[in-house]
Amino acid sequence: MIIATVPIPKGSIKKVFDTIFILLSYLFPIEIMQYRFMQSALLGLILLAPMVALMGVQVVNFRLAFFTDAISHSAFTGIALGLILGINPQISIPVFGVLIGIGVMYGQRRSNLSHDAVIGVIFSAVVALGIAIVSREKNLARNVQRFMYGDILTINVEQLMAMGILLLVVMLFHLFSFNRLIALGINPVLAKAHRIKVDIYRYIFASLLALVVVYAVNAVGVFLVTALLIVPASAARNFASTAGAMVWWAILIALSSSIAGLLISSHPVINTATGATVVIVSFIWFGLSFLRGILRREK
Amino acid sequence: METAVRIQNLSVIRDGNLILDKVSASVPLGSSTAIVGPNGAGKTTLLLALLGELQYQGTIQIGDATSGLRIAYVPQRLTFDRNMPLTVMEYMVLNMQRLPIFLWLRSTAKAKARELLGMVGMASMEKHKLGALSGGETQRLLLALALGEKPELLILDEPASGVDYQGEHVFCELLESQRKRWGFTQLMVSHDLATVTHHADHVICLNRKVAAEGKPREVLTPNNLAAVFGIHMGLVEQGSLNDDHSHCAHPQGEHKKSV
């Protein structure tokens, strides 16, 4: 039985999504996956997984976890600002997230403070602003709870389309600039001397990371968004023997964790939050990778 | 002699402190120039200004008025997560192909990387992890990377730091042979007078200002060194200094031509 809980746009886009959903129902021939909201959630996670894997590799290799945390918390303020200014949160959250990402990068370039201190200052200010707005507007509390825990099961087609476009942009960016990102992460002065436009790549990367984090917040909530980026990439690092292999391991782990997490969480006996279950599955991957590392060292 | 780099009235202020004060100096084209001075003299700051990493007052002209020089840089060290599974080959290829290394390493890029690694005696280390290399191996890898840029001006920041005597000697010999082969101008920062006295053919003594500049024999005098380093330096024997050519000497004083 197919329950159409998600509004589908008319015309060709509707046909595309209908086809994808039918395909997913055949690929996962279990009862729960015949529901449209589960198909939407699965598609959302399939779109999200390669993005968090690709960005997560850079986050882990170049220690950007705190930066990711700051961006994820900016989503909270983005919701609040959007609601009080009468702007659709689907627009206010990514715009605010990107502004914070660029602001942190700019602050790190221009300030005498350490990078962590710059992030800490902006992070604190953003969270304080969000709390101040929410404390004044009591009716925002329900939105805040959704933001805290995420809710991939209510993802709509407009969000799926936005994620599809973002995935395309992230993939193109990495096809064009993955090598340069690695080079500038290892030594930015050396990269600049070798004619890599370091500042441009940094700002584009920060903006894309902000967008990916914002969409990941929708899926797993602010508490777990950093884990969604870090855990698959960390496990991948333990499995991989080259930087290239690390990317493929990260994609495999993020994708398999997302699918398994959704299916496990929706089982009537388990019945847990999807985002948390996805992260737990990826943590199991990490545990396996850790054990493999120990066994390899003992040999 | 033609000039590769001309610095005029260069001043750098960082955090309210004057790090470089109206520095004027030049690097002759094709020379092996060393910038010497004590810690805090502004040597690395001068290099960063040359690389466009810092704001400064004054002028820096690289090359002549019509065209600049192709620059390559060898940093003092790499500060990165040493557990990152990046191999020597992958690191070499990063700058040689747009195609991301997770998709494919092009055979032309790998061949070029192998040739460069061979030049610095690291042909057998292409599968080694970057984070597992010793200080000397890392310096040689960075030199290979820099040579891949086909530099006209090679800038090195304390290439001997973190390297033992033997490693320093090997690096010095290697640098010299590559400079002769490629004909680039070399600008090196060092606080190691043993390296400078045996390697450079042009010296800039720096301690916020330029204290002296010229051939090692003319510049590295006891009076100049005392003025720059603040103490009497009995380390440099005038007889061991270069005039207008450089050669590598064993750090313990014994000259060797091959490693």
Please give a structural write-up.
With 299 residues, chain A is mainly α. Chain A is built from twelve helices and no strands. The radius of gyration of chain A is 20 Å and the shape is globular. Chain A starts with 11 loop residues before the first helix and ends with a helix. With 259 residues, chain B is α/β, with parallel strands linked by helices. A six-stranded mixed sheet of chain B has the order 5-6-7-3-8-9, with helices on both faces. Chain B has a three-stranded antiparallel sheet with strand order 2-1-4, with helices on one face. The two termini of chain B are 32 Å apart. Classes of the chains: A mainly alpha (299), B alpha/beta (259).
Low-pLDDT regions of chain B: 245-259
Q: What global shape of chain A is seen?
A: globular
The overall pLDDT average of chain A reads: 89
Radius of gyration of chain B: 19 Å
The greatest interface here is: A-B, 30 and 36 residues
Measured by DSSP, the beta-strand proportion of chain A falls in: under 5%
Oligomer: heterodimer
Low-confidence stretches of chain A: none
Distance between the terminal alpha carbons of chain A, to the nearest Å? 53 Å
What is the tally of helical segments of chain B? Answer: 8
Question: What are the secondary-structure elements of chain A, in order, as H or E?
Answer: HHHHHHHHHHHH
Structural class of chain B: alpha/beta
Q: Total helix count of chain A?
A: 12
Number of strands of chain A: 0
